[in-house]
C-alpha cells in the first residue's frame, strides 16, 4: 500500500512540474518593431488616446507587455505601457511614464541634450558637485535591461574626464 501511495505522490509531483507554463521573454535589441506586429486593439487604443503623438516606437517588454515611446510637446520622452492579456485589452487599460526622471533640479539645456544624445535609453538625471565645485550630472541609461551611468557637465556635454 505504501508503494502505491508513494507512486501516486511522485506521479502527481511530476505532473505538476510538467504543467508549469514556460515563460517567454523578448530580448530588447536596437531593432525597432514594425507597428503591424503590435496587437490591433492596443494600437487603436493608443492612436485614439494620443492622436498628436508622432514618431512612435513600439517595443515588446515580455510576452504580455508592449510599450510605445514618443516625444511630447515639452521635449520629454513618454512611454505608454499596454498589457496584452484579454482582460486588459478589452478594457483598454494602460499606464504612462514620462522620462527622464529628475531626482534634483536639472537645467533644460542638460535635459534637452541628454534626450537628443541618448534617446529612448535615457532613464534619469541627478545633479552632483564634483571635487572642483563644478556641477556634474549623473545620467542613468538603461540599455537592454542593464543600467549604465554617464556624466554630463552643466552645458549638457558628455564628460570624458572627471576630476
Explained architecture:
The chain is of the alpha+beta class and 163 residues long. It has two domains: 75 residues; 53 residues, no CATH class. It has four helices and eight strands. The strands form two sheets. Strands 1-2-3-4 form a four-stranded antiparallel β-sheet. Strands 5-6-7-8 form a four-stranded mixed β-sheet, covered by helices on one side. The radius of gyration is 23 Å and the shape is flat. About 7% of the residues have low confidence.
How would you briefly describe this protein structure?
This protein is α+β, with helices and mostly antiparallel strands and 163 residues long.
How would you describe this structure in keywords?
alpha+beta; 2 domains; 163 residues
The best one-word shape is flat
When the domains are counted, the total is 2
Rg (C-alpha, Å): 23 Å
Give the uncertain stretches in residue-range form.
21-31
- Order of strands, main sheet, comes to 1-2-3-4
Number of strands: 8
Order of helices and strands: HHEEEHEEHEEE
Distance between the termini: 77 Å
Given helix and strand content, the structural type is: alpha+beta
Number of helices: 4
Described by strand count, sense and barrel closure, the largest sheet is:
4 strands, antiparallel
Mean pLDDT over all positions: 78
The proportion of strand residues reads 25-35%
Helix content: 25-40%
